[in-house]
Amino acid sequence: MPRKPPASPGSDPAAPPPFVPDRDHVIARLTEMLEQLRAADSWPWRPSRERLNRETVWPYLLGFLPEAEAAVWRADLEAEANRLDQVEED
User: Fold this and answer.
1) Rounded CA separation 45/57 (Å)
2) Burial group, residue 37, by CB count within 10 angstroms (0-12, 13-18, 19+)
3) Long-range contacts of residues 3-10, Cβ cutoff 8 Å, at least 24 apart
4) Cα–Cα distance between 80 and 85 in angstroms, integer?
């Protein structure tokens, strides 16, 4: 008997809706991380945590915001990350 192809994502009406975090939670988390960076004289996290935040957490959280707002947060986070990268190099 031939196998049925797998259903495409979102095609199962019985599937639960995708998780969308509360906007206030997203903003609170971004604010907390940005404040930690601004207060730091060097990276406040282990290298593995820094990499996780930069490569996964920040893009994930920013993806829930309107593009213009996400661009402002992204610029602020990158500015602080660049500052701390420079401290590490010196």
Assistant:
1) 14
2) buried
3) none
4) 8
Q: How many CB atoms lie within 10 A of CB 81?
A: 16
For residues 26 and 68, is the Cβ–Cβ distance under 8 A? no
Angle in degrees, CA 55, 59, 37, rounded to 5: 70
**Would you tell me how many other CB atoms lie within 10 Å of the CB of residue 84?**
19
Using one digit for the tens of pLDDT, what is the confidence trace for 6-46? 555 556 778 888 888 999 999 999 999 999 999 999 999 99
* 58 contact partners, CB below 8 Å, separation of at least 6: 30, 33, 74, 77
Rg, C-alpha atoms of the chain: 18
